[in-house]
Write a structure and sequence with these properties.
By secondary structure, this protein is mainly alpha-helical. The protein has 14 helices and no strands. Helix content is about 70%, strand content about 0%. The chain is elongated, with a radius of gyration of 32 Å.
Length: about 375
Amino acid sequence: MPVSELAARVGLVSVLMLWSALVWRARPALRQPRLRGLWVTVLAATTAITLFQPRIVTGLTSLGVHVHAVTLARNLIGVLSAGLVLLFVLDAGRAPRLRRCVAVGLTAALVSLLVLDLLRVAPSPAGTVAAQRPASAAGAYWLILVVAHILGDAVALVVCWRYSLRTTERDLVWSLRLFAAGSVLALVFWGGYLPVLYGLAPGLLPYLSVIMGVHGFLRAASLLVPTATATARAATALRTTWRLWPLWRDLVVAVPHVALASPRRTRLQEVLWPRCPPSLQAHRQTIETYDALLTLQPYVQPDAYEQAHRHARRAGVRDDRLASAALAGAVGQARRAVLGGMPPSDPRPLPGVVHGSTETLLGIARMWPAMTDALPCRDRTAPADRP
């Protein structure tokens, strides 16, 4: 595949991803001031990247829009995005004078580009080939355009990386580092774009276009970090619910008072149609399973854990799962004692079940199908069971 075709495909995919990320994150970002600046910055950069794609320019020119108008709009929006990057990374409370200087410099750069465009002597080149070149052929125009981007991306790289090393909020760390990585690629692009404009490396533009497309992916990723984190947490919670469900269901049937709601017929229904958000459901089932284990402790036999441990070892259970298998066997016997109407005795704490850690409960749930009926249940009329 030619590099130019690869650049066109990467560019279009990155543009689609950027606009999708902007739409997806628009509502939460506009509601939170600390995220609003990042969202507006990515919006400006996305608009400029969109107008950089030859196929987009071809579509606009087919609608009657002149190529010069497209390139001028892209240049102005690109410089605006560079200024917004600077305003975003600078702390409003600690550097008000610096922010005012950036605002003045941004305004001066935009006005200068407009004036130089109006004063152009040579006519603008026509055709979609000129879509990725500046709107003016003046050398001062090129320098203002390139220096504004390099300055904005360089400051963003330093500040975002420095802040990412100071903060402890995981989502913010990844957002800042992805934004900084995108700034690195932007610096590479603008560092190579100026030699292309002066004719020193005319074949470099397709490769720079690929770099700009990857830069768009990183900008979109920096915006989608909270969504990715929420999705990962939901997936982990659903996995916990799925794995814990058989143990939770059997224990809740034996001691129903520990559950807020009765189990559904299948765990597929519990996962696909949850009664509450996935994280809350996983937390609730974990707590209810632990409460059920505490309730069953008066029904645990004195040597149940040791018997179940020996049974699991004879059955060939792996050494790292023997403790979970022994707990599953002891709890399974206690559960059947409750269902059989056995009277309780003095509570016997189960080894390892102290704070109801999710890992311990999931270990018991893993061995539950094989160990729930491993130990025989006592006869109700046995002397040891009498009050």
